[in-house]
Specification:
Layout (H helix, E strand, L loop, with lengths): L8 E4 L6 E7 L6 E10 L2 E12 L7 E11 L20 E4 L8 E7 L8 E8 L4 E4 L1 H8 L6 E3 L4 E8 L3 E10 L3 E12 L5 E10 L2 E10 H9 L1
Keywords: Signal
InterPro entries: XAC2610_dom
Protein name: FG-GAP repeat protein
Length: 231
C-alpha cells in the first residue's frame, strides 16, 4: 500500500455540537502516531487544526504542524481499512507516503480547497534525514494546487501522477519524475479531447525521451473509443 487514509480513529469528547475534539490515529503511518485537534460537529470535522506526530513507542512530540483548513468525516463504524486510491471527491485530511521515492515516509496535510475545480489542496512535507524533521516542499504542494486533488504514485516507474481537465471534454494525465538535487521533471502528458463535432476523440501522448519530446496522436470515432476504454 503506497499510502493510507485516516483510519483507526479514536475520538475523545462529545461531538453532538461543535467541540474541540482530539483525534488519535495510530495506524495511518508505519512510523508515527498522529494527534489532531480540530472542531467537529457530529461526524464532520473542519477548520483550523493542529497535527502532532510522535514516533511509535515514544511519548515525546516529534513534530507539530498547523493548517487553517482541514476537513474530513469520521467513519460511522470501526474501519480496519480505508480506500487509499484517492478520487476527486474522496480525499483524506492527512496522508502518509513516500512522495519523492527516497525511501522515507513523508506527510501531506490538507490546507483547503484551492485546486482546480475546487479540488482539495495539500501542504506536502518531506523527511530530511540529516535534519531529522519534515521540510515543506513547495514543488510537491504546488502539484495539488494545479491539478484535481492529491497526486498519485506509481512505485514501479517511480513517477508522480496528476489528473486535470478543462471543461467537460479535455482530460489530461501528467507524469513527473523526481530528479535528485534538481526537483520535478515533467516526463509525460496524456490527453483525451472530445472534438467539437462530438463524434471523435483525439488522443495525444507526449513523452520526454533523452531530453526531447516525442508526440503521438490518434483519432477514434466516439463509439470505438468507448469500446477501447472498456477493454
Amino acid at each position: 500500500m503506497i499510502w493510507k487514509s485516516l483510519m483507526g480513529i479514536l475520538c475523545m469528547g462529545g461531538l453532538s455540537a461543535t467541540n474541540a475534539a482530539i483525534l488519535m490515529i495510530n495506524d495511518a503511518s508505519q512510523l508515527y502516531d498522529v494527534r489532531i485537534e480540530i472542531g467537529c460537529v457530529q461526524q464532520e470535522c473542519s477548520g483550523e487544526a493542529e497535527i502532532t506526530l510522535s514516533q511509535k513507542g515514544r511519548p515525546q512530540v516529534f513534530q507539530k504542524f498547523s493548517t487553517t483548513q482541514l476537513s474530513f468525516y469520521l467513519p460511522k463504524h470501526d474501519q480496519s481499512d480505508v480506500d487509499h486510491l484517492l478520487k476527486y471527491d474522496n480525499q483524506s485530511g492527512v496522508i502518509f507516503g513516500d512522495f519523492n521515492f527516497d525511501g522515507n515516509e513523508d506527510i501531506a496535510i490538507q490546507d483547503g480547497n484551492y485546486g482546480a475545480y475546487g479540488g482539495v489542496t495539500y501542504d506536502i512535507y518531506v523527511m530530511n534525514r540529516k535534519r531529522q524533521k519534515f521540510i515543506y516542499s513547495a514543488e510537491l504542494s504546488r502539484l495539488t494546487q494545479e491539478s484535481l486533488g492529491m497526486f498519485r504514485l506509481d512505485p514501479d516507474t517511480k513517477r508522480i501522477i496528476t489528473l486535470n481537465k478543462s471543461g467537460c471534454c479535455n482530460h489530461t494525465r501528467s507524469e513527473y519524475e523526481v530528479v535528485p538535487q534538481k526537483g520535478l521533471l515533467l516526463s509525460r502528458e496524456y490527453s483525451e479531447v472530445l472534438m467539437l463535432s462530438g463524434e471523435e476523440v483525439e488522443i495525444i501522448d507526449r513523452k520526454l525521451v533523452n531530453g526531447h519530446w516525442q508526440e503521438q496522436i490518434w483519432h477514434y470515432p466516439i463509439k470505438q473509443y468507448h469500446e477501447i476504454e472498456k477493454q
